Amino acid sequence: MMKKILVVFLCLCMTVITFAACGERGGGGGDEGSAAGGEASYELVIGHVYTEDSLEHQQMLFLKDAIEEKTDGAVKVTIYANEQLGDEQTIAESVVAGSCDVGFSEGSVWATVVNKPEVAVFGLPFQLSGPDAAQEVTKELIKPEMNKLLEGTDIYCLGNVYSGFRHMLSVNKPIKTLEDLKGLKFRVPNATIYVQMFEDMGANPTTTAFSETYQALQQGVVEACECDLANIVQQNWHEVNHYMSKTYHLCANNVICINRAKWDSFPEDIQNAILEAVEESEDYCFEIRATADDEYIGAIEDAGVEIYEVPAEELARMKEACQPIYDEFEGYGLTDLLKKIDDISAKYQ
To answer: Chain-wide mean pLDDT for the chain?
Structure first.
Protein backbone atom coordinates (compact mmCIF):
# COMPACT_ATOMS: atom_id res chain seq x y z
CA MET A 1 0.00 0.00 0.00
CA MET A 2 2.80 2.40 0.91
CA LYS A 3 4.56 1.60 -2.40
CA LYS A 4 1.41 2.46 -4.36
CA ILE A 5 1.09 5.74 -2.47
CA LEU A 6 4.75 6.55 -3.24
CA VAL A 7 4.25 5.82 -6.95
CA VAL A 8 1.20 8.10 -7.10
CA PHE A 9 3.08 10.85 -5.22
CA LEU A 10 6.10 10.67 -7.54
CA CYS A 11 3.90 10.71 -10.64
CA LEU A 12 2.02 13.77 -9.33
CA CYS A 13 5.34 15.50 -8.63
CA MET A 14 6.55 14.79 -12.16
CA THR A 15 3.32 16.10 -13.62
CA VAL A 16 3.75 19.37 -11.71
CA ILE A 17 7.37 19.62 -12.91
CA THR A 18 6.30 19.00 -16.51
CA PHE A 19 3.62 21.70 -16.35
CA ALA A 20 6.10 24.11 -14.81
CA ALA A 21 8.61 23.39 -17.57
CA CYS A 22 5.92 23.97 -20.19
CA GLY A 23 5.13 27.29 -18.54
CA GLU A 24 8.77 28.32 -18.75
CA ARG A 25 8.93 27.39 -22.43
CA GLY A 26 5.84 29.31 -23.32
CA GLY A 27 4.46 29.30 -26.84
CA GLY A 28 7.26 31.27 -28.44
CA GLY A 29 9.87 30.54 -31.07
CA GLY A 30 11.66 27.24 -31.64
CA ASP A 31 15.02 28.48 -30.29
CA GLU A 32 13.66 29.01 -26.79
CA GLY A 33 15.42 26.66 -24.34
CA SER A 34 17.77 25.42 -27.05
CA ALA A 35 21.13 23.75 -26.48
CA ALA A 36 22.89 27.11 -26.43
CA GLY A 37 21.02 28.29 -23.33
CA GLY A 38 23.26 26.75 -20.66
CA GLU A 39 20.43 26.52 -18.10
CA ALA A 40 17.93 23.71 -17.63
CA SER A 41 14.80 24.72 -19.50
CA TYR A 42 13.49 21.18 -19.91
CA GLU A 43 12.94 18.23 -17.60
CA LEU A 44 13.22 14.64 -18.77
CA VAL A 45 12.17 11.88 -16.37
CA ILE A 46 13.26 8.28 -17.05
CA GLY A 47 11.76 5.37 -15.14
CA HIS A 48 12.82 1.71 -15.16
CA VAL A 49 12.62 -1.47 -13.10
CA TYR A 50 16.32 -2.42 -12.93
CA THR A 51 18.65 -1.99 -9.95
CA GLU A 52 21.21 0.80 -9.69
CA ASP A 53 24.05 -1.67 -10.31
CA SER A 54 22.50 -3.10 -13.48
CA LEU A 55 23.96 -2.58 -16.94
CA GLU A 56 20.63 -1.06 -17.99
CA HIS A 57 21.03 1.62 -15.32
CA GLN A 58 24.63 2.21 -16.41
CA GLN A 59 23.37 2.92 -19.92
CA MET A 60 20.79 5.34 -18.53
CA LEU A 61 23.48 7.16 -16.53
CA PHE A 62 25.56 7.40 -19.71
CA LEU A 63 22.49 8.70 -21.55
CA LYS A 64 21.75 11.28 -18.85
CA ASP A 65 25.31 12.65 -19.01
CA ALA A 66 25.32 12.68 -22.81
CA ILE A 67 21.98 14.50 -23.09
CA GLU A 68 22.93 17.12 -20.51
CA GLU A 69 26.31 17.64 -22.16
CA LYS A 70 24.99 17.80 -25.73
CA THR A 71 22.27 20.26 -24.76
CA ASP A 72 24.70 22.37 -22.73
CA GLY A 73 22.54 21.83 -19.67
CA ALA A 74 19.28 22.85 -21.33
CA VAL A 75 17.79 19.44 -20.50
CA LYS A 76 17.90 18.09 -16.95
CA VAL A 77 17.51 14.30 -16.78
CA THR A 78 16.23 12.51 -13.67
CA ILE A 79 16.29 8.71 -13.42
CA TYR A 80 14.02 6.63 -11.17
CA ALA A 81 15.39 3.07 -11.00
CA ASN A 82 14.43 -0.15 -9.23
CA GLU A 83 10.63 0.03 -9.70
CA GLN A 84 10.36 3.37 -7.89
CA LEU A 85 7.64 4.30 -10.40
CA GLY A 86 6.04 0.86 -10.50
CA ASP A 87 6.54 -2.37 -12.40
CA GLU A 88 7.43 -2.53 -16.08
CA GLN A 89 3.89 -2.28 -17.41
CA THR A 90 3.00 0.53 -14.99
CA ILE A 91 5.98 2.58 -16.18
CA ALA A 92 5.06 1.93 -19.82
CA GLU A 93 1.49 3.02 -19.13
CA SER A 94 2.83 6.14 -17.41
CA VAL A 95 4.88 7.01 -20.51
CA VAL A 96 1.78 6.65 -22.67
CA ALA A 97 -0.18 8.85 -20.24
CA GLY A 98 2.64 11.41 -19.92
CA SER A 99 3.20 11.12 -16.16
CA CYS A 100 6.63 9.62 -16.90
CA ASP A 101 8.55 10.91 -19.92
CA VAL A 102 10.76 7.97 -20.91
CA GLY A 103 10.79 4.24 -20.26
CA PHE A 104 12.34 1.19 -21.85
CA SER A 105 10.77 -2.22 -22.20
CA GLU A 106 10.68 -5.05 -24.65
CA GLY A 107 8.31 -4.52 -27.54
CA SER A 108 5.83 -6.95 -26.03
CA VAL A 109 5.22 -4.57 -23.13
CA TRP A 110 4.75 -1.56 -25.42
CA ALA A 111 2.48 -3.71 -27.60
CA THR A 112 0.25 -4.35 -24.60
CA VAL A 113 -0.03 -0.73 -23.46
CA VAL A 114 -0.72 0.72 -26.94
CA ASN A 115 -2.87 -2.27 -27.95
CA LYS A 116 -0.85 -2.99 -31.10
CA PRO A 117 0.53 -6.53 -30.93
CA GLU A 118 2.72 -6.02 -34.00
CA VAL A 119 4.93 -3.68 -31.94
CA ALA A 120 6.48 -6.81 -30.37
CA VAL A 121 8.13 -7.79 -33.68
CA PHE A 122 11.72 -7.30 -32.41
CA GLY A 123 11.24 -9.77 -29.57
CA LEU A 124 10.16 -13.04 -31.17
CA PRO A 125 11.39 -16.44 -29.96
CA PHE A 126 14.79 -17.67 -31.22
CA GLN A 127 14.94 -14.69 -33.62
CA LEU A 128 18.57 -13.51 -33.55
CA SER A 129 21.81 -15.46 -33.80
CA GLY A 130 23.98 -13.41 -31.44
CA PRO A 131 25.15 -9.99 -30.19
CA ASP A 132 26.53 -8.87 -33.57
CA ALA A 133 23.17 -9.47 -35.20
CA ALA A 134 21.46 -7.65 -32.33
CA GLN A 135 23.75 -4.65 -32.75
CA GLU A 136 23.09 -4.36 -36.48
CA VAL A 137 19.34 -4.71 -35.95
CA THR A 138 19.58 -1.95 -33.32
CA LYS A 139 21.50 0.38 -35.63
CA GLU A 140 19.55 -0.26 -38.82
CA LEU A 141 16.00 -1.29 -37.98
CA ILE A 142 14.63 -0.75 -34.50
CA LYS A 143 14.04 3.02 -34.36
CA PRO A 144 12.74 3.57 -37.92
CA GLU A 145 10.63 0.42 -38.06
CA MET A 146 9.23 0.84 -34.56
CA ASN A 147 8.16 4.40 -35.33
CA LYS A 148 6.28 3.19 -38.40
CA LEU A 149 4.42 0.76 -36.17
CA LEU A 150 3.85 3.40 -33.46
CA GLU A 151 2.21 5.93 -35.78
CA GLY A 152 -1.05 7.12 -34.24
CA THR A 153 0.01 6.20 -30.69
CA ASP A 154 1.11 8.42 -27.81
CA ILE A 155 4.73 7.25 -27.80
CA TYR A 156 7.80 7.72 -30.01
CA CYS A 157 10.75 5.32 -30.22
CA LEU A 158 14.20 6.76 -29.43
CA GLY A 159 16.33 3.62 -29.62
CA ASN A 160 17.22 0.45 -27.77
CA VAL A 161 18.65 -0.97 -24.56
CA TYR A 162 20.22 -4.32 -25.44
CA SER A 163 19.86 -6.53 -22.38
CA GLY A 164 21.51 -9.61 -23.83
CA PHE A 165 20.11 -13.03 -24.62
CA ARG A 166 17.79 -14.74 -22.21
CA HIS A 167 18.21 -18.24 -20.76
CA MET A 168 16.06 -20.59 -18.67
CA LEU A 169 16.59 -21.48 -15.01
CA SER A 170 14.81 -24.16 -13.01
CA VAL A 171 14.61 -25.30 -9.40
CA ASN A 172 13.85 -29.02 -9.42
CA LYS A 173 15.06 -30.46 -12.73
CA PRO A 174 17.14 -29.30 -15.69
CA ILE A 175 15.53 -28.19 -18.94
CA LYS A 176 17.29 -30.20 -21.65
CA THR A 177 14.48 -30.89 -24.11
CA LEU A 178 11.17 -29.43 -25.21
CA GLU A 179 9.43 -32.13 -23.19
CA ASP A 180 11.04 -30.87 -19.96
CA LEU A 181 8.94 -27.71 -20.25
CA LYS A 182 5.62 -29.55 -20.20
CA GLY A 183 3.44 -28.29 -17.35
CA LEU A 184 6.32 -26.43 -15.67
CA LYS A 185 5.19 -23.45 -13.57
CA PHE A 186 7.28 -20.83 -15.32
CA ARG A 187 7.69 -17.21 -14.24
CA VAL A 188 7.41 -14.83 -17.19
CA PRO A 189 7.10 -11.03 -17.47
CA ASN A 190 3.64 -9.55 -17.82
CA ALA A 191 3.80 -9.45 -21.61
CA THR A 192 1.73 -11.36 -24.15
CA ILE A 193 4.63 -12.68 -26.24
CA TYR A 194 6.20 -14.43 -23.22
CA VAL A 195 2.93 -16.03 -22.22
CA GLN A 196 2.29 -17.21 -25.79
CA MET A 197 5.82 -18.55 -26.25
CA PHE A 198 5.85 -20.67 -23.11
CA GLU A 199 2.30 -21.86 -23.68
CA ASP A 200 3.32 -22.95 -27.19
CA MET A 201 6.23 -24.89 -25.68
CA GLY A 202 3.91 -26.60 -23.22
CA ALA A 203 4.82 -24.78 -19.99
CA ASN A 204 2.43 -23.18 -17.50
CA PRO A 205 3.46 -19.49 -17.61
CA THR A 206 2.80 -17.30 -14.57
CA THR A 207 3.26 -13.52 -14.68
CA THR A 208 5.15 -12.27 -11.63
CA ALA A 209 6.61 -8.82 -10.91
CA PHE A 210 10.37 -8.58 -11.45
CA SER A 211 11.01 -7.69 -7.80
CA GLU A 212 8.84 -10.57 -6.52
CA THR A 213 10.41 -13.36 -8.59
CA TYR A 214 13.10 -14.37 -6.06
CA GLN A 215 10.49 -14.95 -3.37
CA ALA A 216 8.16 -16.76 -5.79
CA LEU A 217 10.96 -19.19 -6.66
CA GLN A 218 12.01 -19.59 -3.04
CA GLN A 219 8.46 -20.37 -1.90
CA GLY A 220 7.66 -22.71 -4.80
CA VAL A 221 5.01 -20.46 -6.34
CA VAL A 222 6.90 -20.96 -9.60
CA GLU A 223 9.40 -23.69 -10.54
CA ALA A 224 11.39 -21.91 -13.23
CA CYS A 225 12.17 -18.52 -14.69
CA GLU A 226 14.14 -16.94 -17.53
CA CYS A 227 16.20 -13.79 -17.92
CA ASP A 228 19.44 -12.35 -19.26
CA LEU A 229 22.67 -13.27 -17.48
CA ALA A 230 23.23 -9.88 -15.86
CA ASN A 231 19.86 -9.72 -14.16
CA ILE A 232 19.98 -13.37 -13.12
CA VAL A 233 23.03 -12.47 -11.04
CA GLN A 234 21.98 -8.99 -9.94
CA GLN A 235 18.59 -10.27 -8.78
CA ASN A 236 20.28 -13.28 -7.10
CA TRP A 237 18.01 -15.70 -8.94
CA HIS A 238 20.96 -18.11 -9.18
CA GLU A 239 20.64 -18.56 -5.41
CA VAL A 240 17.18 -20.14 -5.68
CA ASN A 241 17.61 -22.17 -8.88
CA HIS A 242 19.69 -25.33 -9.25
CA TYR A 243 19.89 -25.52 -13.05
CA MET A 244 20.41 -23.16 -15.98
CA SER A 245 19.84 -24.05 -19.64
CA LYS A 246 21.51 -21.84 -22.25
CA THR A 247 18.61 -21.50 -24.65
CA TYR A 248 19.15 -18.04 -26.19
CA HIS A 249 15.39 -18.09 -26.64
CA LEU A 250 14.99 -14.32 -26.76
CA CYS A 251 17.18 -11.36 -27.48
CA ALA A 252 16.08 -8.80 -24.91
CA ASN A 253 15.71 -5.61 -26.92
CA ASN A 254 14.29 -3.07 -24.46
CA VAL A 255 12.94 -0.38 -26.74
CA ILE A 256 13.34 3.18 -25.42
CA CYS A 257 10.15 5.21 -25.85
CA ILE A 258 9.22 8.77 -24.96
CA ASN A 259 5.79 10.30 -24.55
CA ARG A 260 4.96 11.75 -27.98
CA ALA A 261 3.60 15.07 -26.69
CA LYS A 262 6.77 15.49 -24.64
CA TRP A 263 8.90 14.70 -27.69
CA ASP A 264 6.98 17.14 -29.86
CA SER A 265 7.44 19.86 -27.23
CA PHE A 266 11.22 19.89 -27.82
CA PRO A 267 12.72 22.12 -30.52
CA GLU A 268 14.61 20.37 -33.31
CA ASP A 269 18.09 20.99 -31.89
CA ILE A 270 17.11 19.38 -28.58
CA GLN A 271 15.56 16.41 -30.38
CA ASN A 272 18.71 15.92 -32.45
CA ALA A 273 20.91 16.11 -29.36
CA ILE A 274 18.78 13.50 -27.58
CA LEU A 275 18.89 11.14 -30.58
CA GLU A 276 22.68 11.48 -30.82
CA ALA A 277 22.96 10.75 -27.11
CA VAL A 278 20.77 7.65 -27.45
CA GLU A 279 22.88 6.30 -30.33
CA GLU A 280 26.06 6.77 -28.30
CA SER A 281 24.45 5.06 -25.30
CA GLU A 282 23.55 2.07 -27.51
CA ASP A 283 27.19 1.67 -28.54
CA TYR A 284 28.22 1.93 -24.89
CA CYS A 285 25.66 -0.73 -23.95
CA PHE A 286 26.99 -3.28 -26.45
CA GLU A 287 30.54 -2.52 -25.33
CA ILE A 288 29.92 -3.22 -21.64
CA ARG A 289 27.76 -6.27 -22.37
CA ALA A 290 30.56 -7.82 -24.42
CA THR A 291 32.85 -8.08 -21.41
CA ALA A 292 30.28 -8.91 -18.75
CA ASP A 293 28.68 -12.22 -19.79
CA ASP A 294 31.67 -14.44 -18.93
CA GLU A 295 31.79 -12.91 -15.45
CA TYR A 296 28.10 -13.60 -14.92
CA ILE A 297 28.43 -17.20 -16.08
CA GLY A 298 31.26 -17.61 -13.56
CA ALA A 299 29.13 -16.20 -10.75
CA ILE A 300 26.27 -18.56 -11.62
CA GLU A 301 28.62 -21.56 -11.67
CA ASP A 302 30.20 -20.48 -8.37
CA ALA A 303 26.73 -20.56 -6.78
CA GLY A 304 26.53 -24.27 -7.59
CA VAL A 305 24.11 -23.99 -10.50
CA GLU A 306 24.47 -26.74 -13.10
CA ILE A 307 24.65 -25.20 -16.59
CA TYR A 308 23.54 -27.02 -19.74
CA GLU A 309 24.18 -26.14 -23.38
CA VAL A 310 20.95 -27.07 -25.14
CA PRO A 311 21.79 -28.76 -28.48
CA ALA A 312 20.97 -26.88 -31.70
CA GLU A 313 18.50 -29.54 -32.78
CA GLU A 314 16.57 -29.16 -29.52
CA LEU A 315 16.52 -25.37 -29.88
CA ALA A 316 15.14 -25.87 -33.40
CA ARG A 317 12.33 -28.00 -31.94
CA MET A 318 11.53 -25.25 -29.43
CA LYS A 319 11.45 -22.64 -32.19
CA GLU A 320 9.24 -24.85 -34.29
CA ALA A 321 6.80 -25.11 -31.38
CA CYS A 322 6.61 -21.30 -31.45
CA GLN A 323 5.76 -21.11 -35.17
CA PRO A 324 2.19 -19.91 -34.45
CA ILE A 325 3.73 -16.67 -33.17
CA TYR A 326 5.58 -16.11 -36.46
CA ASP A 327 2.40 -16.92 -38.39
CA GLU A 328 0.60 -14.27 -36.35
CA PHE A 329 3.18 -11.59 -37.14
CA GLU A 330 3.17 -12.39 -40.82
CA GLY A 331 -0.57 -11.84 -40.58
CA TYR A 332 0.12 -8.26 -39.48
CA GLY A 333 1.81 -7.62 -42.83
CA LEU A 334 5.33 -7.85 -41.42
CA THR A 335 6.72 -10.56 -43.69
CA ASP A 336 9.23 -8.16 -45.31
CA LEU A 337 10.46 -6.85 -41.96
CA LEU A 338 10.80 -10.38 -40.58
CA LYS A 339 12.91 -11.27 -43.63
CA LYS A 340 15.16 -8.24 -43.04
CA ILE A 341 15.72 -9.39 -39.47
CA ASP A 342 16.36 -12.98 -40.61
CA ASP A 343 18.85 -11.81 -43.24
CA ILE A 344 20.84 -9.85 -40.65
CA SER A 345 20.76 -12.78 -38.24
CA ALA A 346 21.99 -15.19 -40.93
CA LYS A 347 25.07 -13.00 -41.57
CA TYR A 348 26.40 -13.79 -38.10
CA GLN A 349 25.57 -17.48 -37.76
So the answer is: 89
Identity at 78, one-letter amino acid code: T
Give the relative orientation of helices 192-200 and 107-114 as an angle to the nearest 10 degrees. Answer: 120
pLDDT digits (tens, 9 = 90+) for 162-174: 999 999 999 999 9
Q: Domain coordinates of the chain in residue numbers?
A: 2-24+34-347
pLDDT for res 156: 98
Three-class DSSP category at 244: strand
Enter the pTM of the model.
0.81
pLDDT of residue 2: 39
Q: Taking residues 205-219, report their average pLDDT.
A: 94
Q: Classify burial at 23, counting beta carbons within 10 Å of its beta carbon; exposed 0-12, middle 13-18, buried 19 or more.
A: exposed
> How many angstroms separate the CA atoms of 110 and 122, rounded?
11
Distance from chain centroid for Cα 241? 23
Neighbouring C-alpha atoms within 13 Å toward the C-beta of 102:
24
**DSSP three-state, residue 338:** helix
CA nearest to 125, candidates 317, 257, 332: 317
Residues 71, 273: contact at Cβ < 8 Å? yes
Check if the beta carbon of residue 62 is closer than 8 Å to that of residue 284.
Answer: yes
**What's the rounded Cα separation, in Å, for the pair 208 and 250?**
18
- In 81-176, the DSSP E strands lie at 102-106, 155-170
Alpha helices in the chain, H assignment, sequence order: 2-25, 55-70, 88-97, 107-114, 131-137, 143-149, 192-200, 213-218, 229-234, 260-265, 268-302, 312-321, 323-331, 335-347
CATH number listed for the domain at residues 2-24+34-347: 3.40.190.170
Residues 172-199: pLDDT tens digits?
A: 999 999 999 999 999 998 878 899 999 9
- Rg (C-alpha) for the chain, rounded Å, is 20
pLDDT of residue 304: 97
Cα–Cα nearest to 185, from 196, 163, 170: 170
Beta strands per DSSP E along 118-223? 155-170, 185-188, 204-207
Q: What is the pLDDT of residue 92?
A: 98
Residue 146's pLDDT band, with cuts at 50, 70 and 90, is very high
